[in-house]
Structure formats: C-alpha cells, structure tokens
Specification:
The chain is of the alpha/beta class and 142 residues long. The protein has helices at residues 14-27, 39-51, 71-82, 100-105, 122-141; strands spanning 7-10, 33-36, 59-62, 90-95, 112-117. It has a 5-stranded parallel beta sheet with strand order 2-1-3-4-5. The protein is globular and about 30 Å long.
Length: 142
C-alpha cells in the first residue's frame, strides 16, 4: 500500500532527509515526495497547492526544532489552512528530542498520529503503512 497524496518531509537535517528518502525508495512507501528545509517554505508551497486545488500530502514527517519556524508553529499555521479545504493529512513528529513537554503537547493535536525518534527505520515505515491501511479500511467501510 502506498500513501495517498504522497509524503512531505519538513526537516533541516540533510542526513535525516537523505536517510528517509532512501527508506521511502526502498519500501515503495509513496509515489510523491516533497521535501522542505523549514516550515515557512513548506507552508508557502502547501498553501499554493490548496489555492490551486492540488492534492495535499497524505503524511507529513515534521521536525520540531528548525530555523525560521518551529514544527509547532508550522502545525498551527497549517491547520488554519486545512480548514479552508478538504484534507486527510496525518502528521508524524520526527525528532531527536525526548522533551517531556513535546510528548505532552502532541495530545493537543488530533492530526498527530505518532512521535518517532530519529533515525526513522524501515520498521517505523512498516508500522505507518499498517496504520494507514487500517485507516483506509475503516473509512471505506463507514
């Protein structure tokens, strides 16, 4: 199963991006991949996609600690955009931080599906694919 709408990676860590791209290629996780070095660039592009009625990503891998705009700031802005159009985007926080405040804060966002500690592994992607399959199966049955 491939992720519908593709995947968006928002992270300023070049090594992480390289590793996740390789994993995605190796597992055929998705057909479409968007990569942004910071939240503001991602927000601008996703806003443009929404305005042009283009598909938004099915999954966003979001780092929390980035220059320009933190992951939390991006998420708050993005969710404002989402209210203007249909989206089923699921967010996976990917971070090397185990800050207890971050772990508590994820509960405030229903779009956040999980908090994944870096580095992301093939097993992490398999768990996501399995969770996505369950979401798709239940949404088609209801």
């Amino acid at each position: 199963m491939k992720v519908k709408g593709g995947v968006c990676i928002i992270d300023d860590d070049h090594i992480f991006i390289y590793g996740v791209k390789r994993l995605i290629d190796d597992t055929s996780f998705c057909d479409k991949l968007m990569v942004y070095q910071n939240g503001q660039d991602a927000l601008d592009e996703l806003k443009e996609r929404l305005e042009n009625k283009l598909e938004l990503p099915g999954i966003i891998f979001l780092d929390l600690n980035m220059p320009m705009m933190t992951g939390w700031e991006f998420l708050d802005e993005y969710l404002q955009l989402e209210t203007k159009g249909p989206s089923q985007t699921r967010v996976y926080i990917v971070s090397s931080s185990v800050d207890p405040q971050d772990l508590l804060k994820i509960n405030d966002y229903e779009q956040i599906r999980n908090y994944i500690l870096k580095p992301v592994t093939a097993e992490d992607l398999e768990k996501i694919i399995s969770a996505e399959a369950k979401i798709n199966t239940s949404s088609h049955q209801g």
